[in-house]
Amino acid sequence: MDGSFYITTPIYYVNDVPHIGHAYTTCAADVLARFHRMRGERVLFSTGTDEHGQKIARAAQDAGLTPQELVDRVVLRFQDLWKRMHISHDVFIRTTDPEHERTVQSFFLLLKEKGYIYKGEYEGWYCVPCETFWTEAQLEGRLVCPDCGRPLERLREESYFFALSKFTEPLLRYLDEHPDFVMPESRFNEIYSFVKGGLKDQSISRLGVRWGIPVPGDPNHTIYVWFDALINYLTVVGFGRDRELFETFWPSAHHLVGKDILRFHAVLWPSMLLAAGLPLPRRVFAHGWWTVEGEKMSKSKGNVVDPLEVIARFGVDRFRYFLMREVSFGLDGDFSERAFVERSNADLSDNFGNLIHRTLNMVWKYRNGRVARPSQYEDREWEELLQEVRERFFTFMDRFAFSQALGEIWRLVHFGNRYLDQKAPWRMAKDPDLGEELDRVLYRLLDCGRILGVFLFPFMPETATRLLQYLGVEEILRDRNPLALCDWGKGPSVFSVAQPEPLFPRLQG
Asked: What is the CATH number of the domain that holds 350?
């Protein structure tokens, strides 16, 4: 399949260490990037950090550091986590990058020239930690941030405004014409209702905040951190400097975000793009939040899940699998060690790992590690199941339904285990007259393992690579379109397998 695919995570605010929420979004983006590469598409996958704003300046001052020193330290934590999680991003963008500053200022000037940015005065309640203004109606008489619960500050100052109110009707028309622009459907309905209520002009600059990108021609103002941050998606694709890169990837842009920042991405951002005369992203997908044993994560409760600790204890692929399998993408999820261990043991140890380990052990025990493709290899039941699984797997992946896509893969796992138990190769091996049938059974099981290795690579790249190495077919991952090779009859003429170690020993817990 030809084409391009541009997938982004939010750029994460560097006010804290990365947690399970950051890992969840980034893992999902990585799964999509790997999947589309395996379809033969050109892929651009970006993540990064949002490093400007009053909150960072205050945190740096409290720590006795310059803002740049603070962000340079925190950024390393994100980069280290992505390395340990095998995140395959092509670009790691920082809002302190000079190229991004130039892009933001040129975009600001473009909207100003088009008449969508004007200077005025703003007065309102402002949440410093969330970098967000709130209206009196939104606060309902309570002077605390509706998102984080912290006290608000009253600000009145000169400001540049973006004429967001002009895009109520254009954005509604776009949503009517593109019902899959915001997903899942519940989030689309939320955004549609919000826009229908009417949009108000947005303050997009700050006075007295030195840690940010200066407004071009008016350096007393710095550009509002969200206006700055959203433009990173254009910086990555070379907006204003690399036409070929922009035209290759921007039409296929997909944004993954948490539901708490959906309005910025599904209201403010598309309005900014409409004002600039640019195409909108193909999709904005908002996933849910993770709780811990039913409670909201917080540092005060001491229940924040550190992905590095989970990986160190249980392994990276168990963690990646749990994140993508445990909950339907888009809904809220709950993390507990008990659920993690139960899911890992049931799916990875008892089902998938057991199928692979039993198969490879029998190949070594009965065929010295080598099985040639037998005559009459075809099997209608296998073929029909695989065709159905392939079609549904691709459909679910195109809708970012990762748990359901993995469920399809596990249909093959369960079928393989039943097939192995029904055929009982250990009994066939005792009868010399069943030697050819034994070869057929073992070869089919090995080819099932080959197909599983390819399907699972986007989710568990370390395990899938190891499996394909055991089978002696790891070169399939170097093919331009490995997913096209997931079919019966496309296995090697001879499987020459390595003596295996268990892929997923059972966890205690």
From this structure: 1.10.730.10
